Amino acid sequence: MLTMLGFCHLPQSTCFGELRGLAKLEKTLVSRKTSAPEGSYTARLFSDEKLLRAKIMEEAEELCDAKTKDEIAFEAADLIYFALTKAVSAGVSLSDIERNLDAKSVKVKRRQGDAKGQWAVKEGITNGSTNGASKEKEAIKEAASIPKAPEDPAGLKNGRITMKRYNAATTTPEDLRAALQRPSQRSTEMIMGIVNPIIKAVREGGDKALLSYTHKFEKATSLTSPVLKAPFPQSLMDLPPETIAAIDTSFENIRKFHAAQKEDKPLQVETMPGIVCSRFARPIERVGLYVPGGTAVLPSTALMLGVPAMVAGCKTIVLASPPRADGSITPEIVYVAHKVGAESIVLAGGAQAVAAMAYGTESVSKVDKILGPGNQFVTAAKMYVSNDTNAGVSIDMPAGPSEVLVIADNDANPAFVASDLLSQAEHGVDSQVILIAVDLSEKELEAIEEELHNQAMALPRVDIVRGAIEHSITLVVKDINEAMKLSNEYAPEHLILQVANAPSVVDQVQNAGSVFIGEWTPESVGDYSAGVNHSLRKSSFVPSSQ
Q1: Is 453 a catalytic residue?
Q2: How far, in Å, CA of 305 to CA of 326, rounded?
Q3: Quick check: bond before 308 cis, omega within 30?
Q4: Distance (Å, rounded) from C-alpha 267 to C-alpha 264?
Q5: What is the C-alpha to C-alpha distance for residues 94 and 356, in angstroms, rounded to an integer?
Q6: How far apart (Å, rounded) are the C-alpha atoms in residues 244 and 242?
Q7: What is the pLDDT of residue 452?
Q8: What b-and-e string marks burial along 163-194, b requiring 16 or more CB atoms within 10 Å of the CB?
Q9: H/E element holding 441?
Q10: List of the chain residues with pLDDT < 50
């Protein structure tokens, strides 16, 4: 049972006596984390993630094999010991765990409750109804997992990578809405249960906590400092001349486009005789720019965030990006940080990087606003710190998964349509791509599907593509007016018009993040080098290329 904790006027934790059970164990482990002799078994449990994982798995199996009451109690205690060691190692407190237990106790949502694949296979069970009847699934569209093996059917139809196809003329409005539903993300409760302890640990532990998370999540155990300060060594920006030229071109285009948006003089309006109202802009003094890492290198995001900050005149620019396992940051990002005049690069990702910039640490400068995309944990952390009055920091917006909607008629090049769809499908398994086909024949639809499969199979991220394709669709409509109506209802992040006389269709666009007009305006041009911004979405219209 759990020991009741509380206030006591005596030099002890509670008036109900000394700590017992889990509370006593937590206190012991917290003490041992800081005092265990170097090289001892206890110290290794806190420093060697593989050893601790092996012990947890070992004790879990011994608990499963236990038969008598005494054996079960003994093995359960062992498992709890190592599980709580894992929690203490990550800065997770017993109260954090109890909050999650309380949340689970009041859940009423029905779940199928199957064991995960690898454990089900090990025990010789199948995740399904034992009598052959199919179980009712939750009425939400879950983001697909990355295919685990070639025989995994995610994103496949008859062995080929294919989007599900619907015809608007024969599909009910309700089914259309369901088909266009975005894939659901993990529950806010689950995400915040992971993010909160990380934010708390960094807020209280500063550099030490931040560095420990970088060691844990990025495996960059050689790092001894969580920050790379300017001026950045030339050796960290060792790039091929063609890469430097490409970054320089993008930098100048983005600078030119954003410089044109600066207000030359304050707006002044006399609303009535003697009453003059004015509006003027000032740069945010300190900004934190989050550049995702993980499955891809994104110097383009560093440009899209850093150049506007430089143009605006922000005095302090801090970049944060997860390092590679050897502790280094990709040279492209370091070069961009150098060009925009960044003060430093925080060598961390996830919620821990957001917390470091929001509250500041011994080495990380506190910022006034955090900008940039990221996964669900980054987004949750940004929302948390923006609502914490003690942080005194704002954010740009909560970012969601990438998505694109392509409208194509019989003038469209099937290869171009497939390329634009795949440009977002390879972002992540939670991405979604939509094709609205305007009066295309079966032969024309099959040509696009053929290109999609062939191009996807040539990509190194084909498994990620398959995960995204699993919840992506082709929607066949009769005319451009119907296509635009559905597009405006969906309100895509990226809208690509691969139709005849595309500029004439732009007037029908009501809801879209950025619009790419014509077959010679691929999304990659806008996302990288045209000059418009892929991070600060404000209906950026990219003109058709000539």
Answers
A1: no
A2: 26
A3: no
A4: 9
A5: 23
A6: 5
A7: 94
A8: beebebeeeeeeebeebbeebebeeeeebbbb
A9: none
A10: 1-12, 16, 106-111, 127-143, 538-541, 543, 545-546
Active site residue 338: no
- DSSP H or E run through 166: strand 164-167
Exposure on the CB side of residue 195, measured as CA atoms within 13 A: 24
Dist. CA 203–CA 333, nearest whole Å: 26
Q: If DSSP states are collapsed to H, E and C, what string results for 262-300?
A: CCCCCEEEEEECCEEEEECCCCCCEEEEECCCCCCCCHH
Mode of pairing for the β-strands spanning 160-161 and 156-157: antiparallel
Question: What tens digit of pLDDT does each residue of 293-343 get?
Answer: 866 678 999 999 999 999 999 999 999 999 999 999 999 999 999 999 999
* The dihedral sign for the CA sequence 228, 233, 236, 240: positive
Query: Dmax of the chain from CA atoms?
Result: 90
Q: What is the DSSP string of 237-261?
A: G---HHHHHHHHHHHHHHHHHHHTT
Whole-number pLDDT of residue 102:
65
Identify the pLDDT of residue 44: 87
3-class state of residue 318 by DSSP: strand
136 SS3 class = coil
For residue 160, the SS3 value is: strand
Count of residues making up the chain: 546
Q: Is 240 left (phi over 0), alpha (psi -120 to 50) or beta?
A: beta
Tokens 């605006």 map to which residue?
312
Instruction: Tell me the C-alpha distance between 127 and 86, whole Å.
Output: 29
Distance CA 530, CA 257 (A): 9
Q: Of 332, 451, 493, 519, which residue is the catalytic one? A: 493
CB atoms < 10 A from the CB of 345, how many?
27
CA distance 370 to 281: 18
Element (H, E) at 494: strand 494-498
Output DSSP code: residue 3.
P
Q: Are 424 and 431 in contact (CB under 8 A)?
A: yes
Report yes or no: 256 and 532 within 8 Å, Cβ to Cβ: no
Which two tokens mark 122? 């090990």
**Separation CA 133–CA 57 (nearest Å):** 34
Is 358 exposed, middle or buried (CB count within 10 Å of its CB: 0-12, 13-18, 19+)?
buried
Return d(Cα 335, Cα 234) in angstroms, integer.
9
* 455 burial type by CB count under 10 A (0-12 exposed, 13-18 middle, 19+ buried): middle
Q: Rounded distance, CA 98 to CA 196, Å?
A: 14
Q: Which amino acid is at 338?
A: H
Catalytic residue among 494, 519, 523, 534: 494
